[in-house]
Write a structure and sequence with these properties.
The structure holds 2 protein chains of 2 kinds. Chain A folds into 2 domains: about 5-80 and about 170-250, P-loop containing nucleotide triphosphate hydrolases (Rossmann fold), CATH 3.40.50; about 90-155, no CATH class. Chain A has 9 helices and 10 strands. Chain A has helices spanning about 40-50, 70-75, 95-100, 110-115, 120-135, 155-165, 185-200, 235-240, 240-245; strands at about 5-10, 15-25, 30-35, 55-60, 65, 80, 170-175, 200-205, 220-225, 225-230. Chain A starts with a strand and ends in a 6-residue tail after the last helix. In chain A, about 45% of the residues are buried. Chain B is an all-alpha fold. The chains are: A alpha/beta, B mainly alpha.
């Protein structure tokens, strides 16, 4: 088990955004995390990656307790993530975005960077090569010198994913990777996600768009901060609770 | 080199020869300027170039510090007090002044690093005011409101050695700050300023970098302040109050916060030009305010972005002519 969430709870004031949530992710899988708007999916990501501190509960990653660790520590341990909104450094070019995201592997010391030592130059050369490779994977190599803020929406999402890959993650958390994309872009993104998985990365994907289910090995459904269903995609699709959550009770046959 | 690609996209930086040329011209200036007053103005300009550039160094990490003149003051008073009252050699007290500003900067940097935008500005503003209160409260040691006199000088009475000293110091400081900004460190600072959430998600220790930027910026402010004290020989706390910080901010913004040359141009223009109209000096704040408005509306990149604005205007005009002709 790569990621294990147990009893995770987060209160905003009196409101439980996530309540007694349990979930596990096996190594090498793609796990879908779906649920209606405001169900607590993004909050869950923020709890795992240290942007928010849980009120209660525990997050284990790769055999370690990562509950309450700071975002950069979580990244260091091997969890990459994308953001639903503002996924990038807007005033950097695409290439700069990816290069700037190589903070960890390799890591140059401040003195190396300042004095432009051979270690630093070697690291930067390696980073540039890696960045170009990642951009090829997500199809951004043609727009590498564009300012990130000028990119169309679909490209921005892909750039978010490219950035997250720069962390060399064991686990990649994607927050709505195909929301607002056109069908071609969706196909392209799904291929990229599949390729990422084949490189040995485990993924958790938050999404509204049910097409994502085609990729998933496991699906967890969350509503009002609580898990309402989990299992194989085809089981979840037929689950009463899920249909109820999405379409209302009168649609349940 | 990669960082060259990163930091100078699209814009060609002038060659080192151009910088060398500028420094040589500046080095020759004392041959033509015989007036001590004008040398004094140039020396002040050089000092404030360091201070303004170091303000920008902090600003690129997204920290809008309104305590910058106070940090300059920490350097100035540390150096002045140690040399005036304890008789320590000036060459020792100046680095100590810079270090003092850096250490205090790093120390407050941790609590400051959790603050953003308006909150950061407010807290740093009050910190600066607090520093001045402490300086005033030290009574005879710092001269309180009457000012501190009798500070030992670096050189003799002539302004010329001071001019060369500050020319060298400013060039060196700018060189160090340039390297700091245009290697990975500066890239990371700019990334944090754009989105601290994204930066954190790729493993950037935001607080560490922000403290680093503040400490480095304060070091240069303290260094400039300490040298200012041993040059001016008289210290008044008015030089380091909130108004003084506002002027530093004005230099930086009017010169252009987005460009390394901005603070240099801004400080030079706003310090030297008013000296040509000394009788009208009381109107300087109004002129500066008007200039700020013009910058915001016409050249958002500051005076450093002026060539770019003129060029694009020229290209547009040419295109218009061509379309009229056809």
């Amino acid at each position: 088990m790569l990621l294990e969430i147990s009893g995770l709870t987060k209160y905003f004031g009196g409101l439980a955004a996530v309540q007694e949530f349990n979930m596990y992710v096996n190594e090498g899988e793609i796990v879908g995390l779906i649920g209606p708007n405001g169900a607590g999916k993004t909050t869950l990501f923020n709890l795992v990656t240290g942007i928010l501190r849980p009120t209660k509960g525990k997050v284990m990653f790769d055999g370690r307790d990562i509950t309450g660790k700071r975002p950069h520590e979580v990244a260091e341990l091997g969890i990459g993530r994308t953001f639903q909104l503002n996924p990038l450094f807007p005033n950097f070019t695409v290439l700069e975005n990816v290069v700037a995201s190589f903070e960890l592997h390799p890591r140059s010391s401040l003195l190396d960077a300042f004095f432009n030592t051979s270690t630093y130059r070697r690291n930067e050369k390696y980073i540039l090569e890696q960045s170009l490779e990642i951009m090829q994977l997500v199809g951004l190599d043609k727009v590498k010198d564009e300012l990130a803020k000028n990119l169309p929406h679909g490209y921005q999402k892909m750039l978010g994913m490219a950035r997250a890959l720069a962390v060399k993650p064991k686990l990649l958390l994607l927050d709505e990777p195909i929301a607002g994309m056109n069908p071609d872009e969706i196909d392209f993104t799904m291929t990229a996600i599949r390729k990422t998985q084949q490189q040995g990365v485990t993924l958790v994907v938050v999404e509204h768009n049910m097409r994502i289910m085609d990729l998933c090995d496991q699906v967890t459904v969350i509503n009002f901060g609580q898990k309402i269903a989990e299992g194989l995609p085809k089981e979840v699709r037929q689950s009463k609770e899920v249909i109820q959550a999405y379409f209302g009770s009168e649609h349940v046959a | 080199m990669i960082e060259k690609q990163i930091s100078t996209r699209g814009r060609k930086l002038p060659k080192p020869a151009v910088y060398g040329g500028i420094v040589i011209i500046l080095a020759l200036l004392p041959l033509f300027i015989k007036s001590n007053y004008w040398l004094h103005v140039l020396i002040l300009t050089l000092i404030y170039i360091i201070v303004t550039a170091s303000f920008r160094l902090i600003a690129i990490s997204g920290q809008f510090s309104l305590a910058h003149a106070a940090f300059m003051g920490i350097g100035a008073y540390t150096s002045a007090v140690l040399s005036r009252w304890f008789g320590w050699p000036v060459w020792l007290t100046i680095p100590l002044g810079a270090l003092m500003a850096m250490v205090i900067g790093a120390f407050v940097g941790y609590p400051f690093a959790r603050l953003r935008a308006v909150y950061y500005a407010l807290v740093s503003l009050f910190f600066g005011i607090g520093v001045l209160q402490i300086i005033n409260a030290l009574g005879i040691w710092t001269g309180s409101y009457q000012g501190l006199t009798g500070i030992p000088p670096i050189f003799g009475a002539s302004k010329i050695p001071y001019y060369y000293f500050f020319l060298g110091l400013t060039s060196l400081c700018l060189l160090v700050m340039y390297r700091f900004e245009f290697c990975r460190i500066g890239t990371t600072l700019k990334a944090i300023a754009q989105s601290y959430l994204v930066a954190g998600s790729v493993g950037v220790n935001e607080i560490r970098y922000r403290v680093l930027a503040l400490a480095a910026g304060c070091f240069f402010a303290g260094l400039a302040g300490a040298c200012y004290a041993q040059y001016n020989l008289v210290l008044s706390n008015l030089s380091f109050n909130f108004m003084a910080t506002l002027w530093i901010v004005m230099y930086a913004i009017i010169g252009g916060l987005n460009s390394f040359a901005g603070p240099i141009i801004g400080a030079a223009v706003l310090i030297i030009i008013p000296e040509f109209a000394r009788d009208l000096k009381m109107y300087t704040p109004y002129v500066a305010a008007a200039l700020l408005l013009i910058v915001v509306y016409v050249i958002p990149q500051g005076l450093a972005g002026l060539p770019e604005v003129i060029r694009s205007w020229y290209i547009r005009r040419k295109a218009k002519r061509v379309s009229h002709a056809s």
